[in-house]
Specification:
With about 160 residues, the protein is mainly β. The protein contains three helices and nine strands, in the order ββββββββαααβ.
């Protein structure tokens, strides 16, 4: 007789970095709960991981990267991912926004600007508690998901309809 077993939790990792020329932050977002998933920050004041224990399923991975030598220097990525039972991750769809001015993010779902505002600064861990506690509206959730249906790369200064 086969038993009905629940899928077990798997560990996946996001990351953060706050060094001289690079700022990075990668977090998971739950479409079902309409919020960023609380993770455990593990690392030094300059680099580390955000460790998650989640059930297999679909999530959004939202990433921010600043590299002072890139043109444009800032990038936000939204990826629809499938977390498998073995802990592997498959990217199903993604969208990228490249920009110079952080105000450019105000044209997009608020989750992106909130993530940007929580990025680590020079030699500091990101302070993520306010981000993990905020629940977004259904409309904001739909806006975030619909971003994946737009152009693959959106650059500040280029026209998009």
């Amino acid at each position: 007789m086969a038993e009905n077993s629940l899928p077990s939790l798997v560990e996946i990792r996001g990351h953060y970095q706050g060094t001289t020329n690079i700022r990075r932050l990668s977090l998971l977002y739950s479409l079902k709960s309409k919020k960023f998933i609380k993770g455990y920050v593990d690392g030094s004041s300059t680099k580390g991981d955000v460790v998650y224990r989640v059930y297999p399923g679909r999530y959004l991975r939202i990433k921010y990267k600043y590299w002072s030598r890139a043109d444009p220097p800032r990038k936000v990525e939204v990826q629809l991912i499938q977390v498998r039972e073995d802990g592997s991750v498959k990217v199903l769809r993604e969208a990228k926004i490249e920009f110079y001015d952080p105000e450019f993010l105000s044209r997009f779902p608020p989750q992106l600007k909130d993530l940007y505002e929580r990025c680590p600064h020079y030699h500091s861990k990101p302070y993520l508690k306010p981000l993990f506690e905020k629940v977004y509206s259904e409309e904001e959730n739909v806006m975030l998901l619909s971003l994946l249906d737009k152009a693959n790369i959106i650059r500040e200064g280029e026209e998009h309809e």
